[in-house]
Amino acid sequence: MKRVDTKRRLIDSKLESRKMRRKDIDDFKVVEGVIDPPTLKILYRLLNKGVISRLFGAISTGKEANVYRGEDQDGYPLAVKIYRMTTAETDFMLEYIQGDPRFRRVKRRSRALIPLWARKEYLNLKRYYDVGVRVPKPLAIERNVLVMEFIGNIESKLPAPLIRQVKIPSPVETFNQIIEMIELGYTKAELVHADLSEFNILWLDEPIFIDVSQAVLKSHEKAKRYLFRDIKNVANYFRRLGVETEDPKIITEHILSVGESE
């Protein structure tokens, strides 16, 4: 406890020395007590850099991370994803990160693995975003804190719901959109989401993929298996909505063939 208190005093002292606005510091107290001091220090660093200016309550919570609504210096909403450094289950992460040429040295310790996992999501978001797959635009990454575009109503600042929480205007059209996004991701971004389902797709007048930390390069030894699994999950969901989808195996083979011809 003394060590934690000492770290917090050092952080507060550093902030005071830089004459930061007390209001901004108080806004960060919303996460103090649920976030470890090193992560809190990262948040203050992002505050100093002008990446974020305020932080509010959680938009969503999960086993790996919580997503908070933040604001930039102009008051524009942001999404701030904070990965847990101590309580996250990390064993499953190795399956998706080992063998990725972007990460040469992968250690099992959570304090080494979690920052890599966070950076992997940042890089995957960028690959998707750059080719036109609808995902939150990645804005900054610092250790275990990822700052992204806020997906939701900008005026009310309410986050977009999951696709499973809304009545989709045209399920057939939406299913086709999602398959096109999967194909675009595979052929142009050379990525497979690897955990795609109605739980990882937002709806804001169109589908938007989220939670892409586990997405693998199409060169991954299990990429084809993950691609089929993604398509099967999506097809099963839309079949429950009454959509007569093509066989997931046929869709998968088509995307694989297009990818090989690119």
Task: Write a concise keyword list for the protein shown above.
262 residues, alpha+beta, Transferase(Phosphotransferase), domain 1, 42% helix, single chain, 5-stranded antiparallel beta sheet, 8 helices, Phosphorylase Kinase, domain 1, 2 domains, two-stranded antiparallel ribbon
In angstroms, what separates the terminal alpha carbons? 57 Å
**Helical percentage:** 40-55%
Please give the radius of gyration in angstroms: 20 Å
What is the CATH topology descriptor of the largest domain? Phosphorylase Kinase, domain 1
Task: Note down, in words, how this protein is organized.
This protein folds into 2 domains: 14-149, Phosphorylase Kinase, domain 1 (2-Layer Sandwich); 163-261, Transferase(Phosphotransferase) domain 1 (Transferase(Phosphotransferase), domain 1). Helix content is 42%, strand content 16%. The chain has 8 helices and 9 strands. The strands form 3 sheets. Strands 1-2-3-5-4 form a 5-stranded antiparallel sheet, sandwiched between helices. The chain has a two-stranded antiparallel ribbon with strand order 6-9. A hairpin with a 2-residue loop joins strand 4 and strand 5 (145-149). It is globular, with a radius of gyration of 20 Å.
